[in-house]
Amino acid sequence: MKGKGKLRLAAVQMQSGNDWRANLERALARVTEAAEAGADVVALPENFVCMGSEGDRARIARESEGEVSRTLQSVARARGVILLGGSFLVPSGEAEDPRPCNTSVLWDRSGGVAAVYHKIHLFDVSIHDGSTYQESRHVRPGSRIVTVGLEGVTFGLSICYDLRFPELYRALTLEGAQIVFVPSAFTLATGKEHWLPLLQARAIENQFYLVAPAQFGVHPDKRQTYGHSAILDPWGMILAQAPERECVIYAEFDPEYLAEVRSRIPVLRHRRPDLYSQAPGKKV
Fold it and tell me: Active site residue: 54, 119, 135, 246, which one?
């Protein structure tokens, strides 16, 4: 039996392809599995609806408009879980910039929309293995940092490449975030070296729980993702980590332990924002 204020967290690892209906059906099966295992909070990975090319994902965003959200809303209500729709493309509705947004939606246990986050930092990079990605060609960046309170806990939202920008996570912490989601599809090349160190750094420096569901394996167009979905505590300990298969991992959120970590090493109280905005080298 969970103690007061504790939540059972679940992160779903997937190997999504191009068939968005099949991907959605598999995601629902994993959410159901997690709910039956007693999960209070279930998080899906980035691009769980489609892991094809950016163009394929934009096309599917138009085809699936509304259906993905309605389906996830229904399962959150039926299963009584807080559900993060990892990320999927949502049409922006803007005539001057028709690119869809890479979007996370958080539903509460009754199926109500608790929060919507559009990915701020887009993956426009060239990797040493020769791969090049230009997410911004097909995706419109978000412009708002998002936290939300549910059941006495403050959740923060982020997506994948956001993980490389510590300023975002400090802003989420200053807004009260205690559990932060990082649904991801890290490439194999970057994930091997950076995925866990970045997760641990963000958890340690901000002293919050991280729920990081991820894509794994080979996808259409031979894209390969790292997997290793993980849940971390505010000390930076990896509480659960996924093997190389589609699965659900679990860990417990303990608000008393979070408060203890923050009280023993009170980094938020020791901040010096009066100095951080100064130009490098400027003397006071």
Answer: 119
Over residues 37-58, the pLDDT tens digits come to: 999 999 999 999 999 877 787 7
pLDDT at 279: 67
46 is catalytic: yes
β-bridge pairing 7-13 and 41-43: parallel
pLDDT at residue 138 tops 90 = no
Catalytic one of 46, 54, 135, 246: 46
Q: Which of 50, 101, 135, 160 is catalytic?
A: 160
Interval 112-137 mean pLDDT? 91
Let me know the angle formed at the C-alpha of 86 by 52 and 245, rounded to the nearest 5 degrees.
70
Looking at 77-86, 125-134, 172-181, 236-245, which range is the least confident one?
125-134
Q: Is 160 a catalytic residue?
A: yes
The whole-chain average pLDDT of the chain stands at 93
Domain layout of the chain by residue ranges: 7-272
Location of structure tokens 């003397």: 283
CATH superfamily of 7-272: Carbon-nitrogen hydrolase (3.60.110.10)
Pairing of strands 153-157, 147-150: antiparallel
- Judge whether 169 and 209 are in contact, CB under 8 Å: no
Which of 254, 282, 217 has the alpha carbon at shortest distance from 7?
A: 254
